[in-house]
Amino acid sequence: MRVKWIHSRFVRVAIVAALLGGCGQKQSAPPPPPPPPEVGVITVTPTSVPVSAELPGRTSAFLVAQVRARVDGIVLRREFTEGAEVKAGQRLYKIDPAPFIAALNTAKATLAKAQANLVAQNAQVERYKVLVAGKAVSQQAYDNAVAAQGQAAADVASGKAAVDTAQINLGYTDVISPISGRSGVSQVTPGAYVQAGAATLMTTVQQLDPVYVDMTQSSVAGLKLRRDIQEGRLQTSGSNAAKVTLTLEDGRPYGQDGNLQFSDISVDQGTGSVTVRAIFPNKDNVLLPGMFVRATIDEGVNNKALVVPQVGVTHDQKGQAIALVVGPDNKVSQAILSTSGTYGSNWVIDSGLKAGDRVIVEGTDKAKPGATVKPVAAQVQAPGMPAPTPAVFAADNPQAPTSPASAK
């Protein structure tokens, strides 16, 4: 009986050990691999992007006339209001005309004397012409009469010129505005002595409608601009002329568009820049000479542009712009990008991507180069949708946020 009991107990222990061993093997089995992380991607497709160049600039008057003294004299009165509109031909100052009236009268008297002498010389020549034919006077006497007639005619011409000069100088005592525009500060007051030799500045008149905007552009960008104009992609006149918009100093947009005029033919050796000029209507005189503005030149449309949301572009330790791309096998690779500017909230890609590439824009912290991911459509605005502002070249926009194009 004791042997049977021991055998039965041994069997039970063996069964329990087997069960425990089976449980131990089930716990030591390796867990299944985790699923690949889910990332949001966008597919890069060509889209139409308006291209523009943003440049700093300053306004300048369309016409500027420095009103200066053209005769010497005392200013009797000022006949305009500083800062007011004046018309071309309007008298601004009156200089004492008394000495010039006297000079004019003297010139007229001299002219009258010369004219009287010419009449006498003409009569003498006519008499001598008859007498010399009858040998009543010598040929020498006749020649002297003809010479005196010519001298009298020259005196008349000189007298007329003197009268004209005196009349002109008298007219200069009325200091008139040569152009229509806005008058500046008066540099002289009644009682002041002005001089023609010193060209005394009296005031300045500026025409402010329209107004020029002179912008500075890098010589490389200027070369591209001139090439676009020469090849017809950018026009400076007609209905298809390139439009220019302005942003004022306070950040507000200027309400009217301007037209591109020309690009300067010389490069500033100190800054390596050229001047580009545009013209803007300025009916309300919002733009004043010397104001700092930012101008955006509409250069056309790039119909094959590749754009990527800015959230999908980062930088590596070398400062290079990079993006994570999901390949056909759902493996992640890294692309080094070169950009030319921005289009709304997107970067405009020059190189590093091609149409059809899938770029990770959501969950970039879950993806590493070489890893396998599960791509899904990202919940971001499609890059092809219109953006609030046209594409702006970073090279022409020194105050814009740093573009990843700076590290190619």
Task: Explain how this protein is built.
With 408 residues, the chain is of the alpha+beta class. The protein folds into 4 domains: 117 residues, conserved putative lor/sdh protein from methanococcus maripaludis s2 fold (Beta Barrel); 98 residues, Elongation Factor Tu (Ef-tu), domain 3 (Beta Barrel); 54 residues, Beta Barrel (OB fold (Dihydrolipoamide Acetyltransferase, E2P)); 74 residues, Helix hairpin bin (Helix Hairpins). It is built from 4 helices and 21 strands. The strands form 3 sheets. Strands 2, 4, 7, 9, 10, 11, 12, 13, 17, 18 and 21 form an 11-stranded mixed β-sheet that branches. A hairpin with a 2-residue loop joins strand 17 and strand 18. Helix 2 packs antiparallel against helix 3. The protein is elongated. The chain starts with a helix and ends in a 15-residue tail after the last strand.
What structural category arises from helix and sheet content? alpha+beta
Number of domains: 4
At CATH level 2, the architecture of the largest domain is Beta Barrel
How large, in whole angstroms, is the Cα Rg?
Answer: 45 Å
Termini separation comes to 93 Å
Number of helices: 4
Q: What is the CATH T-level topology of the largest domain?
A: conserved putative lor/sdh protein from methanococcus maripaludis s2 fold
Mean pLDDT score, rounded? 82
pLDDT below 50 for ≥5 consecutive residues: which ranges?
A: 1-7, 385-408
